[in-house]
Amino acid sequence: MTTINSADLLQIVTKIENIEREKVETSELLTDAYNEAKSMGYDVKIIKHVLKLRKKDKDDLAEEDSLIELYRGALGV
Fold this sequence. Notes:
Elements: H1 6-39, H2 44-55, H3 58-75
């Protein structure tokens, strides 16, 4: 039979429980922030899109924008 270090196991389980609790709290804070933006008249869908864009590398973003413009021009959009 395998021996288990109870103290180590308890430490890991407690750590995971704390992270899960923080995750819920963070999710609630994000929801509140999006609701605040919406109440101020901002489009939450656009804000989420802008957040994705801000995470991208500048060169990759410039290339993507260029291709989007090219495709939109080709499709008359």
